[in-house]
Predict the structure.
Amino acid sequence: MSAAGRSWPVFLWQVAPGAWSARLLCDTQRESGAGSDPDSALAELARRLAALTKSGRFTDDSPPDGDPAVIELSLTLRGERSGKGRSWATRDPIRLVVHAVAIEDSSGRVAHLPVLGLAVRLLVGDDLKDAVTNRLRRFFSGDPPEDIAAYLPPTRWKIASVKVPQRRAAGQVESDLGPLPQVAEPMLGGGRAWRRDALVAELASRLGRGSIAVVGEPGCGKSAVISAAAKLKQRSVTETANPLEPASPARSPPRFWRTSAQRLIAGMRWLGEWEQRCQEVIRRLAAIDGVLVVDSLAELLAVGGEDEIDSVAAFLAPFMTRGELRLVGECSALEFDAIRRRLPAFADACAVLAVPELAEADAAAVVAQALHSAAASHGLTAEPAAAATVYGLFKRHAGAAGFPGPAVRFIDELAGSIERSAGPTIDPAAVRAAFTRHAGLAPRLIDDGIPVPLAEVAERLTGSVIAQDSAVETAARVAILVKSGLADPRRPVASLLFAGPTGVGKTQLAKALAAELFPGLGDEALVRLDLSEYAGPDAAVRMLGAGGRPSPFLARLRRQPAAVVLLDEIEKADPVVFDLLLTSLDEGRLGDPLGRSTSLRQAVIVATTNLGADHRPIAGFAEPRSVAETSVRTALAVHFRPEFLARIDQVVVFRALDRAAVRRIAALELAALARREGLTARGLSLTWDPAVIEALVVRGYDPERGARAMQRAVHDLVATPLAMALLAAPGPVHLAWHNGSVSVRRG
């Protein structure tokens, strides 16, 4: 341990008179300290970090280079009430003021919410306020309004820094490691690879003999196996050292260095610059008998040049083949197959170590061990039933892939949140509450103690979609499927094709279903793609991404895989899009050319189409349901390939709206207008004559656009004259239809 160290930014705030807290602004290790004043809180944090560094539990040696910027955000959230087996969002919004600290680091932007102990990593193009708002919706999901309102922003705060002592490994003082510390971090700590002892021993025995591809599904424990094997290998080297030569940590630098493809080329702008850096890194590693560990082999093919021939992987392959560079990297089986196809020399330079999925008994045991360890490190106790609850929730609601990694990360977040709260125990109720925030699912869908009758779900959906009883019941059954946990874990939760005329509620039902399933996700509950924009030859690139970067669509799904994915106007998509969708519907994933998969196994797929909807009577609003449905299904069979329709769980035909349905829609729009802030803030009520409804029916519906024009009609006929009338004396407002326009009467 050296007295030298690096300075980390810290956020300090006054909790109460004579009480201050200090939070380290690090998104991987969110440590804190407390004291009677800022200095004592900072000193307590420094002591804690020194102890963690000494024990090897604080290993992040890359503080952000950019200056932190404190941004005060004003957000609007809604609380949630529950009772009699139901839960619902409260009507009145709660305004919340939050201090976010934005920092640029080597991996991009991070928005820290230090008072809440949260951090949000922002992707390229993400709006900070939107990302923070969505994270807070998940964090406060299920909380009553008084609990949210109890959160008060600090009145006094400041930014400071704390020096974290570095664990110096061999050669960091006396040896010149060149650019190595700039592009990689020494693997000083050791991860825990529960139930993987044989794999850890095998990998440790092979480390240093050549390059290795550690292959397995995302979340199966590849990183843990590599970390544990590196620790075991480092220890065995130390124990077998020459006993006549005194041990000297300053002369034995760390042998294992972890990096990523992006870090290897970060900051390199000119031709040949990153190649020169990589060659120097290889030389320095060879001098210390070192091994380079990369978190994604596929990413090495995606960066460095126009294609894989000019990539970082292509540059490193000859050095790996000659044994001048020993590299260990992670990838999935699909990614390794893609690497072998696209750059055989790189694949041939790697021996393969397969990490299979854990058996169910072992996976459950890993969850129990992880929970016990996390509880102990946070000074908590965990009830035995809590581990079973974590395991059951992830197996039921988190898809088939990615286990137990996501569950272990969830446990760490859970223990940290409970440590900051009043309760010292992790019990099943705490697990369910945290999982609700984590997954965004409605509490009633994950708690077996809350019944969810089909009729009740259908009733809530009917409030948003009029005169589509069959479609509403189909959507409601999806919610029941999620509740039961009987969805096929290898495919999307459900795949539906909504077919019918424009303006009859197809998109609205998808939105209502997203709100029913994922109320804690806010706007992120619905991921919408207009497939009419994916009709050209670049459709696959636009959907998947290019240059090694995922498309905005995939980036959003990777950030939040639980969602309703709405594919609008699917009939207009290029045929290559249907090829991609066949895999998505069959295997619950979207793969890019490098084999990198994005899971759709927690998503509900809803596609919409207007095919067959042009067959309708010349006059009137609707036609016999059997005739309309036959027309639509015939058009679908002609247009879509049989293998695509065979993978759709259910085709739902929406009927054209009759006049009674359009009247109900008009009444709903007027009722929504009556709830707008311009009226409620003034304490005004709104009533209307039946003639106003009839006028809206005429203006707000036509056979070509359905009821889509209703909102425009309400705006033109009602909202505009109503806005002008609000400047008059206060009192109730009544709408009447007179001489072809709406008249507004007060009082």
